[in-house]
Design brief:
mainly alpha, two-stranded antiparallel sheet, 4 strands, binds zinc ion, 225 residues
Length: 225
Amino acid sequence: MIKIERKETEKARKAVQSLQKAKSSKSSYNTPEVNAALREMFHGKCYLCENKESTSFQIEHMYSCGKNPELKYDWNNLFLVCAHCNNTKLDKYEPILDCTKENIEEAIAFRKKGYFGTEEELVFEVLDFTDETLNTQRLLKEIYYGSTPQKKMEAKILRKILRKELSQFKEYVREYQEAEDEEKEDLKCLLKQQLGDASAFAAFKRWLIRDNEEVYPELAVYSKQ
Ligand SMILES: [Zn+2]
């Protein structure tokens, strides 16, 4: 989970227009324009787990529309989420950190402890003790570990995708360390991309570099939002 900027792009403008139209005709907020704008804004990632490989994405309302139906059509209240995370969150964790407003990585450190052959564990360390952060931490734990038999299975698949992504990332860092001159520059570009907002599981990758800042000072600049 990282901070995502709600930029005023052409797609976002069209989404807001289509929401106004849907609102006045009392039709669904789930329009092609809204989906296209959310995909662009969230870089094709679920805002909670940062998985890009999910086959089922949904639209989430951050603030529940029960008391205020207007919120259903409020662009600022719409988030791109995968089915696994949406079905995990339901309304059990309120309020959580709003990733379009809060600097998530300053509130929570994302770490994967252990390595192949040892007990691997995902740790979400709370750095600022607000209700929002604590709820977000509890939610992230449930997302990555599950609570029902089915969710546990889904969480296992999610952890597997994360593990693969992080291994690949570590391999790039190793190659970068050993490379010379021109090759080093190319790899640096690749790592900059890997640490960028559009990268899958960016919070974990960036915290890996932040935790090893002295070893990779030139990569550390890409690891902070
Ligand atoms: Zn997700």
